[in-house]
Every structure is written in structure tokens, then in C-alpha cells.
Amino acid sequence: MLSQHTQVYRGLLRELKRSSLPPHKINPALSSNFRRLAEQARRSDPVLEDLRNALIFLAAQREHRVLLDRYNPLVDLTAEERIHATARRVGLDMPITHQPENDK
């Protein structure tokens, strides 16, 4: 059976893989820092609790991003694109704005 320290460390690595961009590519500095903290957790219970909290935070942050993308698809649009998308959502279409040409 795996120790609690190993389970938490592996859970952290799994969450880092799931939330990384590009997928499944972990930043080596992050993994080495978490490994160092996991080794320290063998000697100290508060460090193990901190690692558990970090694991919960990473999972919640990933889930938040998924829900935000699912229920708010306009989050990454510019203001003008957001207005057009909102108008289309309620069955309207934005009028084409007049672009005056400069006379020479």
C-alpha cells in the first residue's frame, strides 16, 4: 500500500498533467518543487496538509476553468465580438455601421 505522502504527490502530478497547456506537459520546475515538498512532508505533518490543500486547489481551479468555458463561452471575446454574440443569442443581428470614406 502506498503511503499518504506518495498518494498526495502522485495526485499533484496528475492534476498538473490535466491542467497544463499543452496537455500532459508538466513544467519541470513545478514537479521538482513538489517533489522536494513531498520529501519534506515525510518529516512534517503540516507540510503534508499543505500539499493536500494544494491538490484540492488545483483540482478546483481546473474544474472552475471547465465550467467557465462551458457556461460562459463569451469570456475570451473582445467587447465588440461579445456584443455581436449577445445580439445573435436573443435573435437579433447588429446593424452594419457606416464607415465614411475620406474624400480626396
UniProtKB/TrEMBL annotation:
Pfam hit, one: Complex1_LYR_2
Species assigned in the record: Lentinula edodes
Name of the protein this chain belongs to: Ras guanyl-nucleotide exchange factor
GO biological process, one term: mitochondrial proton-transporting ATP synthase complex assembly
InterPro entries (alphabetical): Fmc1
CC per GO annotation: mitochondrial matrix
Classification lineage: Eukaryota, Fungi, Dikarya, Basidiomycota, Agaricomycotina
